[in-house]
Write a structure and sequence with these properties.
single chain; about 90 residues; Rossmann fold; elongated
Length: about 90
């Protein structure tokens, strides 16, 4: 899965728990690391493990010189609150 808010992932976790499954956590390929998703997983008492995340993606892009620092900062600001972001 790709985690943005965690909503669909946590619905699956909830369904498993309702079926009396012992859910140890949620695994996904990627997370943006939005504050809302971190809050949602914490409230659900569900650990999230991912292969990659937005911070590492930006780090790789930056280390390879694909984007200038202004663009990198814009991407960092977007991630803080994408719903209200105005670039």
């Amino acid at each position: 899965d790709l985690v943005s808010t965690g909503g669909s992932s946590l619905k699956a976790v909830e369904a498993l728990r309702e079926a009396n499954a012992n859910v140890l956590g949620m695994a996904a390929f990627f997370t943006y690391g939005f504050p809302v998703s971190e809050e949602n997983f914490e409230k659900a008492n569900c650990r999230l493990l991912t292969l990659s995340d937005y911070d590492h993606l930006l780090e790789q892009v930056n280390s390879n010189g694909y984007m200038d620092e202004i663009t990198m900062e814009t991407l960092r600001q977007w991630r803080k609150d994408p719903a209200k972001w105005q670039g």
